[in-house]
Amino acid sequence: MEKEYLGTSKEIADEVDIGDFDLQTPSYQVWLLGYDADQNITDFSKQLRASPDPEAAVEWAKQYSDNGKFENESIPDNVAYVEVLVETIVDLGGYEENVGTLYSEVFKLE
Q1: N or C: the chain end with fewer CB closer than 10 Å?
Q2: What is the pTM of this model?
Q3: No. of helices (H) and no. of strands (E), the chain
């Protein structure tokens, strides 16, 4: 899998269809997700950080990825790939919804 930067919050916001509801102020969550050898999602996930600032969340995720800090996490044996991503999260009156991904980078574990 290749690195993929999906854009800034402004670029994403311009593309996301938010429908006919009042959009709350989003938060930006950094997640670590696991995939098996066939690149299917596993049940391994860990929220690493949340931020009110999209650029700060993306920058933190990039540094976390570039420094290989995911290698310090306790990752199950069935996980062959990990994805570091930043999601734009809004509260839709009782539940949170990911309305856009700002950053995603996938790594194959050795």
Answers
A1: C
A2: 0.76
A3: 2, 5
